[in-house]
Recover the amino acids of this structure.
């Protein structure tokens, strides 16, 4: 992280010498009037600052000292606090919000792998996605894989479909390709099947299916029925980055979420994320002062039937809250016991949890309460939540929770009775925008009426339950917080389907509060961050577009042009692009991040119209007379795809969806 001296030099273009202030009190929590004796580090002015402080909801200037907000108010109040070395940044009327906090992301695991992954997050055409895939295949050396690991849905594509296995094999006959779609399936080309060793003799694992042809040979399609373990286990067979590259990868992933205005993350653990081994890279970055997000981490059990042993061992190694404001332990979960995990795959029927769920869960919860460990529990369906609450209530009768922060993750189909039970036990609910990616699948299975409360966020808030928002990135959904904010406000999926009536949607400020102040409850940090208030940590984002003024459809396109963590720039763009320290290039040199970055911004209106027109012409549900709707040969050919007229002339086909 940059030093103050480095930042002051970088900010020289924004400096105007302010009035002198005498030395005096340095308490950052004192009132605005009392702050006149301070010498400030940084002043931001001429902005539209949303503080989320109910006493002072708007401001035009703020002062930062020693990594905290020291004064927030009008320019007439704040500007006189400048000292001879104070730096001043003109916000030029831009909207400023508290730094966003993701209450459910798998950023530690995601960071270790980010530089290896081709991200289709945000790509709105399968044609573009396949072009990216072809280019990445061409630059990836053996024995490396090309991996598209979640963060997208077929519904976001103009063509409304996934690539076929034939299309993937035509593009890449020799380089292994692994494409993960949500938690329902993975597509592997022939080279990937050979790399992982799946043959006619490979048995189906419990809860998963290896699709086979008429001769019994694997086709390359892996299906979660309904357990995603087969998808995770297959991905884990691929090459890993060496430690130095993993550090570089983690830094680039953190900078990518900084670009979207994220300054805090609660890491929910994850499959194949072992503690403490897989935490060494993030802890090394913390020791070296290179974290650019505040990170609270939960511990996720890895061994079925040995969950109690895991948590008993961990309770002797680390305690909740251990760490500092940048990196701290946050408790247990989201996996507590494997028998209580109901994977959300709305393409298949709801899984019934096994009879031993309660017997497995109770001793783990007792251990956590006895050791005063907060916990989180993955639960998609109301039926799972009902059974878990039975256990929680039983334990609470014996060992009162007494203010312990525990919560459910997801809760898409929770009913009113269970919301009230959670409120009575003092629990919370962390919601994610998974329905923005899977809403169409849910509606197809359960109907529009059932989808109207998935989840019933307003009812949760009315019941007094703490509610926070997040993404569940990187595999099941994108890490882009603005997709979540758009979903909360509009009630729409990425495919454009309206899921929720207006009564079940949030206004923009309420949605933003779930992404900032409200999420501090889930890491036991209320009052420390999440608002632009004197005394809180100086984390903020200066936005590319005004969140409160842009059309609803444009919310998902917002980024940050300046992100501050503790008052120091961790990302800069546009007029602020020179403020943040530079990163070394992504490693290795064939990394997809070097060519594409991460989240792909939507095309302009002209491009969007072209996609929509072509998709309508193609329909993407019927075969094309020229290609049989297997356009792989065209994707792999050297044809002028940037010139639609020449491209169609070469192929003799008007069904192409750009």
């Amino acid at each position: 992280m940059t030093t103050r001296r480095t930042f002051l030099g970088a900010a020289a273009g924004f400096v105007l010498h302010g009035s002198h202030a005498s030395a005096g009190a340095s308490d950052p929590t004192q009132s605005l009037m009392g702050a006149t004796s301070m010498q400030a580090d940084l002043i931001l002015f001429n902005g539209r600052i949303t503080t989320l402080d109910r006493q002072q909801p708007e401001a035009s200037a703020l002062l930062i000292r020693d990594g905290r907000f020291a004064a927030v108010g009008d320019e007439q109040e704040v500007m006189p606090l400048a000292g001879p070395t104070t730096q001043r940044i003109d916000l030029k009327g831009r909207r400023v919000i508290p730094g966003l906090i993701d209450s459910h992301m798998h950023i530690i695991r995601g960071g270790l792998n980010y530089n290896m992954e081709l991200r289709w997050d945000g790509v709105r055409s399968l044609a573009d996605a396949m072009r990216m895939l072809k280019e990445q295949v061409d630059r990836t050396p053996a024995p490396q894989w090309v991996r598209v690991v979640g963060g997208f849905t077929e519904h976001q594509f103009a063509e409304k479909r996934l690539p076929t296995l034939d299309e993937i094999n035509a593009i890449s006959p020799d380089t292994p390709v692994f494409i993960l779609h949500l938690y329902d399936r993975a597509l592997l080309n022939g080279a990937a099947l050979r790399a992982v060793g799946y043959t006619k003799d490979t048995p189906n694992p419990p809860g998963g299916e290896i699709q086979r042809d008429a001769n019994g040979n694997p086709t390359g399609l892996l299906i979660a029925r309904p357990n995603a373990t087969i998808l995770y286990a297959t991905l884990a067979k691929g090459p890993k980055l060496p430690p130095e590259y993993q550090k570089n990868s983690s830094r680039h992933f953190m900078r990518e979420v900084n670009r979207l205005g994220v300054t805090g993350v609660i890491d929910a653990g994850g499959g194949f994320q072992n503690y403490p081994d897989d935490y060494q890279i993030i802890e090394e970055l913390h020791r070296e002062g290179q974290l650019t997000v505040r990170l609270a981490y939960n511990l996720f059990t890895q061994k079925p039937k040995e969950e109690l042993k895991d948590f008993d061992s961990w309770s002797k190694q680390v305690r909740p809250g251990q760490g500092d404001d940048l990196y701290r332990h946050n408790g247990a979960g989201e996996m507590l016991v494997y028998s209580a995990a109901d994977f959300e795959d709305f393409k298949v029927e709801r899984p019934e949890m096994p009879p031993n769920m309660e017997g497995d869960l109770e001793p783990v919860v007792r251990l956590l309460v006895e050791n005063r460990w907060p916990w989180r529990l993955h639960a998609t369906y109301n039926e799972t939540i009902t059974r878990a609450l039975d256990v929680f209530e039983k334990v609470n009768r014996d060992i009162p929770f007494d203010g312990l922060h525990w919560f459910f993750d997801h809760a898409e189909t929770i009913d009113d009775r269970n919301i009230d039970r959670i409120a009575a036990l003092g629990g919370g609910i962390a919601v994610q925008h998974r329905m923005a990616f899977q809403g169409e699948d849910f509606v197809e299975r359960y109907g529009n009426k059932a989808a109207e409360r998935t989840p019933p966020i307003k009812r949760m808030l009315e019941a007094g339950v703490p509610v926070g928002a997040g993404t569940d990135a990187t595999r099941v959904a994108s890490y882009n917080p603005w997709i979540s904010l758009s979903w909360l406000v509009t009630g729409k999926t990425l495919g454009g389907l309206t899921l929720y009536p207006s009564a079940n949607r949030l206004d923009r400020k309420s949605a933003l509060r779930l992404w900032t102040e409200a999420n501090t409850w889930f890491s036991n940090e209320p009052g420390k961050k999440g608002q632009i208030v004197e005394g809180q940590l100086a984390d903020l984002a200066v936005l590319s577009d005004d969140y409160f003024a842009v059309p609803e459809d444009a919310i998902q396109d917002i980024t940050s042009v300046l992100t501050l963590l503790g008052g120091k720039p961790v990302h800069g763009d546009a007029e602020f692009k020179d403020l943040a320290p530079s990163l070394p290039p992504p490693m290795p040199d064939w990394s997809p991040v070097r060519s594409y970055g991460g989240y792909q911004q939507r095309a302009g209106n002209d491009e969007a119209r072209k996609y929509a027109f072509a998709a309508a012409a193609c329909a993407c549900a019927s075969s094309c007379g020229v290609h049989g709707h297997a356009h792989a040969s065209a994707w792999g050919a050297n044809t002028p795809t940037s010139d639609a007229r020449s491209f169609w002339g070469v192929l003799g086909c008007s069904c192409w969806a750009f």
